[in-house]
Amino acid sequence: MTIETHDITRPSPEIIEALGAIGAATASSQLSKMGVRNSHIFGPVSRSPGRRIVGPALTLQFMPKREDQYDADEYADPEKQLHRHVLYHTQPGDVVVVDARGDMRSGIFGEMMLTYFRGKGGIGVVIDGCLRDYPNYGDLDLGYWIKGLTPNFHTQTDIMPFGVNVPIACGGCLVMPGDIIIADDDGAVVVPAQLAPTLIARASKHHEWEAFSKERLMEGGELKRYYPLTEEARPEYEAWLAAKAGAAG
User: Residue 28: which of 194, 199, 146, 144 has the closest Cα?
Assistant: First the structure.
């Protein structure tokens, strides 16, 4: 049995590095201002406190299981199991994003699959559903954004893997193969690959004035003057920027 699945187009390392300085909250707010209203993958939460990952999305789609289409045995005809095939595409820095239909009874990946993924250079998973074997892979150094945990394997109950590197709906959010995931303690955000350069430019300016405003607020400055930055405070901000540039030079 031969199964063919497509790989994704990955962004440049420079894009990934620049996005690495942007948190999920900033990405979500700036994307909203750019017209992408819904970029947050709702439901999966971090099980890796303090970790932030940025990487292109390998996508895996699940559908309701129909027994004539899929065997229930965990080890029957392993190469028919598409959740393996998405991992076959893994390159260093990749993130696997799974539409598991919000199912809380199927463990999409377990210890062995995640070990393989990490060994190939994967950095994290975002799953609208569950993982299994959680006590066994705490040392894998991966980021996990999931809805929960279960002892069940992936097709033990009511869903089956159906598509690899296809458009998916994960946590109510459209994820295209190769979209860029920014995930931290606030959650996971989808950055359309073609919008990444614009987001980087906008977020850089946002971070600059926000750093200035935070400094002034810590000194007891007025919220209505410094957040958001008002035009009245802008000359003060420009002087602050010039002073920083002079110090750096």
Answer: 199
41 beta partners: 188
Q: What is the distance between the alpha carbons of residues 71 and 50, in angstroms, rounded to a whole number?
A: 39
Tens of pLDDT, residue by residue over 87-142, are 999 999 999 999 999 999 999 999 999 999 999 999 999 999 999 998 888 789 99
Q: Is there a contact between 20 and 52 (Cβ–Cβ < 8 Å)?
A: yes
Angle at 226 between CA 223 and CA 229, to 5 degrees: 135
Token pair recorded at residue 235: 């000359």
Q: Which amino acid is at 123?
A: I
Give this prediction's pTM. 0.88
Query: Which residues of the chain form beta strands (DSSP E)?
Result: 40-41, 45-46, 53-64, 95-99, 124-127, 130-131, 143-146, 148-149, 159-164, 168-170, 173-175, 180-184, 187-191
Query: Residue type for 242, please?
Result: A
Distance from C-alpha of 233 to C-alpha of 237, rounded to nearest angstrom = 6
